[in-house]
Amino acid sequence: MERPVETVFTRRFDRLVRRGAALLAGAFALSVSFTLWAIWPSNEAVGYRPAQPVAFPHDVMAGQVKIDALVKS
């Protein structure tokens, strides 16, 4: 007759460890998925230029008045 295997931890502790590991794996998968979605080129607003509320003559201010522009064009 075989001797029963002695366990170090309780079944409840084993379940908690498995649930915690599953939760961590799910959080990791979710964070990787979100990161890949966020850096995907189609999700970036490349070349986006909103309509300016005030018509401001940047070329006149930078050229004639010699005011440094803060926005790179």
Order of helices and strands: HH
- The number of helical segments is 2
Query: Major sheet: size, sense and barrel closure?
Result: none
The SS-based structural class is mainly alpha
Distance between the termini: 84 Å
- What's the overall geometry? rod-shaped
Q: In angstroms, what is the radius of gyration?
A: 30 Å
- Fraction of residues in helices? 40-55%
Strand-residue proportion: under 5%
* Quantity of strands, as a count: 0
Average pLDDT: 81
Polypeptide structure, described:
There is one protein chain. By secondary structure, this protein is mostly helical. The protein has helices at residues 11-39, 58-63.
Keywords, separated by commas or semicolons:
73 residues, single chain, mainly alpha
Q: What is the structure about, briefly put?
A:
With 73 residues, this protein is an all-alpha fold. Helices cover 48% and strands 0% of the residues.
